[in-house]
Amino acid sequence: NGFLARMLKMALKDPEEFTYETAEQLWLALSPTNQFRGGLENFVYRGQGDSTLPLLPTLLRSTNRLPIFQDQMVHAGDMVFHERAILKRFVKHCDAVGLPIPHDSSELRASLDAKRGSSFDKHPSLWPLPAALNLIAMAQHHGVPTRLLDWTTKAYTAAYFAASSALNRFDRWTPESKLIIWALDRLSLDIHPDIVLHYSPGSTSPHLAAQGGLFTVHPSVGPELRFYPIRGLDEHLRDVDYNPFIKMTLPVNQAPELLRLCSIAGFNGANVYPTADGAGRAVLDDINSFAAYTVLETFDIK
């Protein structure tokens, strides 16, 4: 009934949230000397340019155009089937140009054989195999939609990504728009078996070492062959006593200044993507930062 529903909602644990008004305030909050829950060294971070976006991996975003969605629901078996089919195609193209596959084996390749009616389709929670996670991480860092979410051990790398992502979408800003940095208490994950934190070796992608990168493995949407609501990573843990997430938000009008602070400290596109592509990304960040001031003046939120 309505009363029980309200009581259940009150019992759910939302992440702690901290709001900051200036880039300098957020910068200081991310300092390793800060004492959120005993020290930020216990956390991993994720920066997003839009605070309204959930913690959804690319595989579960409707923009990936996979036929696994229906009215904001996702089919458990179809999700696993298409994920494996995508990875099999990724491996095929890597083979064609001679790129090594992490933890390559006949067992790994057999697990990617996306035939209808396989054990993974019937029991979606069996996927992914631990041996497949480095392959999935490699695919993730090369633009393939997967169930992984990128995180970093470096708070200021997350700040860079939040500022850069916000500036990349400056044409959609409103006076209420905010960027966000998520902090995840990794020491608490032992009591949260639904969340797996995966570390891939730096050789998996040249960007991983520079970014201090690691991943969360999004839980299976459900054990049965039916549709389930799409839930962000944080929503999976709202019914536990201790929520391991912290949210830090900042108005997007501070994104250019946050990007400037990151750049001064050595956290820019060229540093977090140590290739010519990263140098190009740094240039685009500068262009977006300059163009964003026009939007700020339009909304009178500078």
Task: State the gist of this model.
This protein has 302 residues and is an alpha+beta fold. It is built from 11 helices and 10 strands. A hairpin with a 2-residue loop joins strand 3 and strand 4.
- Cα-to-Cα separation, first versus last residue: 47 Å
The largest sheet, given as strand count, sense and whether it forms a barrel, is: 4 strands, mixed
Nearest-integer average pLDDT: 85
Low-confidence stretches: 1-11
Overall structural class, as computed from helix and strand content, comes to alpha+beta
How would you characterize this protein structure?
The chain is α+β, with helices and mostly antiparallel strands. The chain has one domain (13-296). It has eleven helices and ten strands. The strands form three sheets. It has a four-stranded mixed sheet with strand order 1-10-6-2. Strands 3-4-9 form a three-stranded antiparallel sheet. α7 (155-168) packs across α9 (255-264). The longest helix has 24 residues, at 276-299. The protein is globular, with a radius of gyration of 20 Å. It starts with a helix and ends with a helix.
How is the topology of this model organized?
Layout: H1 2-11, E1 16-19, H2 23-29, E2 43-48, E3 69-70, E4 73-75, H3 76-96, H4 106-111, H5 119-122, H6 133-140, E5 148-152, H7 155-168, E6 178-185, E7 196-198, H8 206-211, E8 213-217, E9 227-229, E10 245-251, H9 255-264, H10 269-272, H11 276-299
Parallel strand pairs: 1-10
Antiparallel strand pairs: 2-6, 3-4, 4-9, 5-8, 6-10, 7-8
Helix pairs in contact: 2-9, 7-9
